[in-house]
Structures are given as C-alpha cells and as structure tokens.
Amino acid sequence: MRNLLMFPLIALTALTTFSSVALAQEVFQRPGEPEQRPPSLYQKIQGTGPGGPAPRRDLSGSWAGPLEPKPGVVPPMTALGESRFKLNIPDPFSAHSNDPWATCDPFGFPRSATNETRGISFAQMPDRVVIMTQYQKVWRQVWMDGRELPKNVGAKGGPDSRWYGYSVGHWDGDNTLVVETTGVDDSTWVDRRGYPHSVEMRIEERYTRVDHNDLELTVTIDDPKIYTKPFVIATNKFKWIPNQEDEEQLCVPSEAISYLNTVAIPASQDRATDKK
Amino acid sequence: MNTKRAMSFALVVGVLTVCGPLFAHHGNAAYDTGKTIILKEATVTKFVWANPHTFIMFDVKDDKGNVLHWVGESGSPASLSLLGWSKSALHPGDLITVYIYPSKNGNPVGRLNKIVLADGTTLKDSALGYRDPE
Question: Are the C-beta atoms of residues A267 and B105 closer than 8 Å to each other?
C-alpha cells in the first residue's frame, strides 16, 4: 500500500512543480500549442526605462503589472494542509471547480496579490498606506503608526478574521515598504492553484522601488499549521503607468455565469461531463 | 491488490484533473488551435463585452442553408481595448467575417482568431489573433 501511494505522491510533486514552471512564464503556453500573447498595459509600457532615481519612501501612484506573477515553489504541507488542499479544485471556468473565483467571491489576501495582478496603486497618508488592487477595486489599509498586529484573531475574545486580514507596515531603508498581514479568513485560497491557509498565517510583502518606473514585490507566507516552512508564494514586477490612468477590471457574478453557461461549458462539454 | 492499484490510479487522475487547467490563463483548452474555420456573412446577434472574456454570438448559414447559432470567445475587455476593440465595436445585425478556432467537441463554439467588419476593419483576438490563419 505504501509503495502504491508513493507513485501518486511523486506524480503530484512533479506535476505541481511543472505547473509552477508553466505559470511562471510571461505567456501561457500549453505543450504543443502555439504561443499566446495576452496583451496587457504592462507589456505595452515595457520600453519606458528607469525614469530616474526612486523618490525616498514614496510609492504613491498607479502601477501596471503582468496578468499573473511568478508563482513560488510550495514546500511540503502538514497533514492538515494536505487535507485542506485536496478539497480545493481550481479552474473557475469548468463545471467541476469549487474555486471561489467562479462566483466572483472576494479573493482575500494574499490571493489579491498572486492572481490577476494587472494593476496596483498606492496612496500614502500620515499614519497609513492604502494599497489598491485594480482587479475588483480592492483597497487595504496598512497602518504605519507603529501599532502591532492583533493577536488571537478568530479565537474567543479575539477580533474576527476578515477577507483581507489586518495589516501594519514600515519602511526598510529608503525604497522598501514592508507590510505584515494576519487574520485572513481561512475560506480563501492563497493563489489560483488552490493552496490553503489558516487564520494564523502571517504574510510579508516587500515592495522595493528600484528606480522611478520599476517596483518589485516579494510575498512570503509563514503558516506552520499548513506548511512545513515559510516560503515565497509569488514575486512580481510593476511598471509606473506614464499617464497614471488605471484600467477597470471587475469580476461580475452575472457576467461570469453567462460566460460559463454560454462559452466555457459548451466549449468543453466532454471535459466537463467526464468528471464527476 | 486491484483495489489498491485502482485507488493509486484514481489519485493520479485526480491530480491531473487539478493540474491540467493551470496551464492556460483560462479557457482555450477545449479549442483546436491547429485549424481556423472561416465563417463569411456572419450576422451578429449579441456582443457581450464582459469579464472574464468577451464573446460574440452570431448566426451563419451552412452549405444547406440551415442557420447555425455560433459563439465566438475572445479576450478580456482590458486586453482587447489595447488592440482597437471597444464596447461599441459590434452591434446586433452587423455582418462580419469570422476566423475561429473551433471547439474540439464539435459544438458551434470557438475561440476567435480575428474578425473582419463590413468596412474592412480587422479586429484581432488577444490570444492567437496575431497568427495568420492557414
């Protein structure tokens, strides 16, 4: 029995690794299929150059990103992590999926930073930074006044968990904003691959403004209940939008249902009916 | 033994099922991108400018004169806007020529390569529309 289970485990590891590599590419290409080039504002403004030095401790303004970031390699999960992961079936536009994306449920954090990352904006106030994500027009408050993250979120007597958790931040040097987040509702997935998390998960975002026009992000997860060690879930790059005009991009439940019923399922009925 | 082997196999199939969709951004897996069908004198019945993907519904007559109701999937509004499309690019009743990658299951559903409007304007899709049809 043990030996028989090893094969699926090896296959799972290999496939997960392979999927990560596939997702890491700027273009999404299936083996044996022609290259696809989804045009994005990010691709269109690649030639704008560095634009001079980065201003000190200032990210304010609008930035364009790629459709998807570079996904990280997920370490082995705990038994609880494995059991939770098995319940999540990605690909929102197939009949058998249970991805909350299919019904346009809030991504929560960090999925809002690991999925559909075409645009991000920052607004700085004296005591906080507001991070705004283009997709679904989501905004998060990051307190910069030195307060601590809440403890015992979700436990009796503690504050409630939230879709986007609780965030505090500080500057590391003149060009890096560090944001710490916890208390995220554990029904959300950390990325489109369906990886789970607990309410106790701690997430660190490091935004480094390399020069005026370039911003780099690393998102790290520490969740000992679910993963055997901390790991980088995604790295991303953003470009300063020359005219500062954001795009609008929303997941609309009625549109998603219409797309699923009119296009996705008729186009793949064989796939859909073969499963479940 | 057979039960164990079956369980092992089922688990692999399950994993493949989960991993398969990850290769594409979304959609496309069900389309035969190796061949392009050209549908002339297609009459637009509905243009849905929506996320995640825009689609056009149109009617085409087959060689026996029967009307087929097609659906052509295209990119997101954000992607298509960069290629010259807009929400007002198409209206019901417009006559267009459609270059489309059909679904593998034979349904009248496909992923657009490009469309050509009555005035000759070409609108390419964001995924494979840069590729000239064979």
Answer: yes
DSSP notation for A80-104: HHHHHHHT----TTSTT---GGGGT
Kindly determine whether residue B19 and residue A18, on different chains, have CB atoms separated by under 8 Å.
yes
CA distance B41 to chain A (A): 21
Average pLDDT in the A83-107 region?
92
Peptide bond into A110 cis (omega under 30): yes
d(C-alpha B57, C-alpha A154), whole Å = 47
Which residues in chain A have their CB less than 8 angstroms from residue B25's CB? Answer: 28, 36, 38, 67-68
Kindly identify which residue of chain A lies nearest to residue B6, measuring between CA atoms.
A4
CB A164 within 8 A of CB A109: yes
ipTM: 0.76
Residue A114 near residue A191, CB atoms below 8 Å? yes
Q: How many residues does chain B have?
A: 134
Q: Between A97 and B26, name the one with better pLDDT.
A: A97
Inter-CA distances, B39 with B59, B64, B116, Å: 10, 14, 10
In 3D space, the residue among A207, A189, A211, A209 whose CA is nearest the CA of residue A198 turns out to be: A189
Give me the pLDDT at residue B27, please: 53
Residue A21 contacts by C-beta under 8 Å, 6 or more apart in sequence? Answer: none
Confidence at residue B2, expressed as pLDDT on a 0 to 100 scale: 52
Q: What is the pLDDT of residues A181-191, one digit of tens each?
A: 999 999 999 99
- The encoded tokens of residue B44 equal 């637009």
Which residues 92-151 in chain A show a CB within 8 A of chain B? 92-94, 96-97, 118
Q: Which of B8, B85, B111, B134 to substitute to test the interface with A, most A CBs within 10 Å?
A: B8
CB B33 within 8 A of CB B53: no
Q: Which of A268, A269, A274, A275 to mutate to test the interface with B (most CBs of B within 10 A)?
A: A268
The C-alpha atoms of residue B59 and residue B69 are separated, in whole angstroms, by 5
